[in-house]
Amino acid sequence: MQRRLWILSSVLVPMVATADASADVHALGRQVAALRVDHALNLTPQQAQVLLPILQAARAQREASRPAVASALAMAVSDLKATGAVSEGTARAMAAARPSGGPNAGARSLWQQARQVLTPAQLEALRTTPLGVSPAGTPAAPEGRRAGPGRRLRLMHALLSEDFLALVQARAG
């Protein structure tokens, strides 16, 4: 019995510690990205006051769709385990879970509104600011090319993060 407990503790404790460390790494990465974007934008109090409700609405929209998306993804996992393919019903549930206007509609709306608030220099800073800690960070797009979907997604996560919203709220006064 003691041997079983020792084996379980030697396996489970490191797994829990690794999970905690992984969560810490993700949380710190989000903070780094939020701080980099905040410093790059250097929003005025007026810009922060206008941008804050836009960001809060976009975050609320994203959060509202998450339970339905999670449910549809769970159905897809179940389908794939059972048959190796996603059923039509699951595909319809996934399409229904996405916001109207397609999967990128919320991001497009956010960018349209942000362009009205931010200066061209701030928009350029969003395009070029590294989002990570490494010297290269999350690389910006090469000259003459648009940023890839990975960078756009990471930037969207940074803009809608609680960390960034708190920084914008502090700037808004």
Keywords:
173 residues; mainly alpha; elongated
| Largest sheet entry | none
- Span of the ends, CA to CA: 60 Å
- Determine the mean pLDDT: 80
Query: Residue share in helices?
Result: over 70%
Instruction: Label the overall shape.
Output: elongated
Would you report the number of β strands?
A: 0
SSE pattern: HHHHHHH
Beta-strand percent range: under 5%
List unreliable stretches of 5+ residues.
none
Number of helices: 7
Tell me the structural class. Answer: mainly alpha
> Which value, in Å, is the CA radius of gyration?
20 Å
Structure in words:
With 173 residues, the protein is mostly helical. It has a domain at 26-64 and 104-172. Helices cover 77% and strands 0% of the residues. It is built from seven helices and no strands. It has helices spanning 2-41, 45-83, 88-97, 105-117, 120-128, 149-159, 162-172. Helix 1 runs parallel beside helix 7 (162-172) and helix 2 runs antiparallel to helix 3 (88-97). The longest helix is centred in the N-terminal third of the chain and has 40 residues, at 2-41. The protein is elongated. The chain starts with a helix and ends with a helix. The mean pLDDT is 80.
